[in-house]
Amino acid sequence: MQFMLLFSRQGKLRLQKWYVPLSDKEKKKITRELVQTVLARKPKMCSFLEWRDLKIVYKRYASLYFCCAIEDQDNELITLEIIHRYVELLDKYFGSVCELDIIFNFEKAYFILDEFLLGGEAQETSKKNVLKAIEQADLLQEDAETPRSVLEEIGLT
Amino acid sequence: MLAHFRKLVPQLVRILKNLIMSGYSPEHDVSGISDPFLQVRILRLLRILGKSDDDSSEAMNDILAQVATNTETSKNVGNAILYETVLTIMDIKSESGLRVLAINILGRFLLNNDKNIRYVALTSLLKTVQTDHNAVQRHRSTIVDCLKDLDVSIKRRAMELSFALVNGNNIRGMMKELLYFLDSCDPEFKADCASGVFLAAEKYAPSKRWHIDTIMRVLTTAGSYVRDDSVPNLIQLITNSVEMHAYTVQRLYKALLDDISQQPLVQVASWCIGEYGDLLVSGQCEEEEPIQVTEDEVLDVLEGLLVSNLSTPVTRGYSLTAIMKLSTRFSSVNRIKKVVSIYGSSIDVELQQRAVEYNALFKKYDHMRPALLERMPIMEKSATNGPTEIVQTNGETEPSVVEPKHPPLVTQPANQANDLLVLLGGNDVPVIQTTMPTKPASAGGELLELLGDLSLSGGPAPAPAPSVPTSQPSFLLDGLSSQPLFNDIATAAIPPMTAYNKNGLKIDFTFERANPNPNIAVITIHASNSTEADMTDFVFQAAVPKTFQLQLLSPSSNVVPALNQGTVTQVIRVLNPQKQQLRMRIKLTYTLKGSPVQDLAEVNNFPPQSWQ
């Protein structure tokens, strides 16, 4: 996979993950073009399209478009499965995920994506392991926030 | 390097087997299939490893068959795995039974309701149709049905696949479907579809009449989308089918009466009416009921084209020339004279020039008119690939050499306008038997520019060029006289020469002429090394003057072995349209005994036959 984009029906970018090195300007340009192209597609159309020299696989979940760019020799159908697996992970983690969850907890979304995909390829196929890793990371985060009493907060003792 | 990994094939096969056979593992499971990601990965790796290796392919055969038959296809996951399996089977050296199984899976995909699956199937079938043609033919009807699908990507794929599947047996049925598709498809497809139809019709037409009918159908339905260079091709086709002239011109005339907005149709029709107008008026046609057309009606139509806003300048040129040709075939010459003289003051320079020249024909050179405007001989189709080659014929000769038999003159304008320009302006070319000194040079310049413009704009109308009066026979005759010269040269052998010989490196050039295009000289360089050490990283580069074009193909190797043990060969193709002396500057870089060596040299001693 070369990159993955998540954007809403209004064309606002919610998440972007790039597995190829590109300058910022190029990324913006690609994002703009791709968002336009995908949003122009009618609902009944095929989930694959050819764009430049890449294949674009996209799937719409509620109001979010999940869009992946894969190379010529990659399997499009399994990419659809990858997108679905990612959505399932988000769903399991957030509990019935919706776009707002991703907007407010985008860093968690990125963490989950990074646990699942590495360098554009799926690195962990077990749902349980991915979620376990995220849970452990969360635990560490909570431990770091030591409980402080009200007085300590104001600065007295 | 792959050999190192091929040892792992049995292990991979075992792992895959376990995956399929083993029980349910909830965390890796996707809709009943255990770990499809891993399965797809293993299949892909097997594909890479088995690609050109018989042993590994054999070891994989069983497991691939097993996966193909046991995977559930009700969900997308199963289909994803099957798709990967099919790709793998196609790429490795599998046995034919397995390949048939793969094609059948793809056929099943085509029947699936899911668009994605159909898209994927069409794409893969396109890849395999070259190798397993017969198997794919079985699914032809499904593919043709996909032409009617609503999705744009599927339609495009189905169209490409249909063209790939057309053959002599199914041409009639397929063409019906394709023409129907042409009617109803989006504009972006029409150009490709039209070109495809022309190609297929050319290759497999069962009869001339069918061919002409098909072409007519394409012109009338998708006329404005047809590519510009197909107009000359069609004209050439029509002249070739001699017995169909009357029928063709009649149908074209009728089509023209209906609709004059589609430029290619109008151009072809006006050309044919110009050529075969007499057949049209005489009303003889065996194939269809003859229609009664008078000369005036025909002239009305052609004049209508001239004044209509829908006609492009090119079309106007065609129709003016057609009117002029009819002056020898029809009896109402006065009317034609009037029309031609009106356009003598037209704003469009092209039309004006033609009209002025035709006027001159009427006034001063009336004796030449019949000879000039005679029927065109059958055009030779040049032997290069299909639609891109423009064939020009010139039936007229210069007035002082009015022979009853007009040799077909085939000048081959290559796709570059420059070649056309230069060929026609090649006054330096030897062997011109022209005796026409008196025509003003300025007119010649304009003609050249006009022809240059014509060919620059995608070569839309080489046909008008031949009927231009012989004020410039020198150019046209150049082609005439140089054509036989080309043929002679093609058969004579060209002696090889030594281009460079220094520091132990010797480079020989051997020549041959590329048959389809006599302007291309194919030079093979042989580099040999007489020193004691090998020359590594050997790179040969060549540069030629601007009037030539050079194409350097890849060398046989980068190492010139020592002591003349072997040679490095490389092929150079030089396009030499101006027939100027071939000169070349070569640059050699190589590493000898660890130190890099670079050298530049000029090669001037090419044998004359290589560039003449």
Textual characterization of the structure:
The complex is a heterodimer of chains A (157) and B (612). By secondary structure, chain A is of the alpha+beta class. Helices cover 48% and strands 22% of the residues of chain A. Chain A has a single domain (3-146), classed as Beta-Lactamase (2-Layer Sandwich). Chain A contains six helices and seven strands. In chain A, strands 2-1-5-4-3 form a five-stranded antiparallel β-sheet, with helices on both faces. Chain B contains 25 helices and ten strands. Chain B has helices spanning 2-6, 9-21, 36-50, 54-70, 76-91, 96-111, 115-128, 133-137, 140-146, 152-165, 171-184, 187-204, 208-222, 230-240, 245-258, 263-282, 295-307, 313-329, 333-342, 349-363, 369-372, 417-425, 441-456, 464-467, 473-491, and strands at residues 29-30, 33-34, 497-502, 505-513, 520-529, 535-543, 549-552, 567-575, 584-592, 595-603. Chain B is flat, with a radius of gyration of 32 Å. At the A-B interface, strand 3, helix 2 and helix 5 of A face helix 3, helix 5, helix 7 and helix 10 of B. Chain A: It comes from Larimichthys crocea (Large yellow croaker). Chain A: Belongs to the adaptor complexes small subunit family. Chain A: Keywords: Coated pit, Cytoplasmic vesicle, Golgi apparatus, Membrane, Protein transport, Transport.
List keywords for this structure.
heterodimer; A: 157 residues; alpha+beta; Beta-Lactamase; five-stranded antiparallel sheet; two-stranded antiparallel ribbon; 48% helix; elongated; B: 612 residues; three-stranded antiparallel sheet; 25 helices; 52% helix
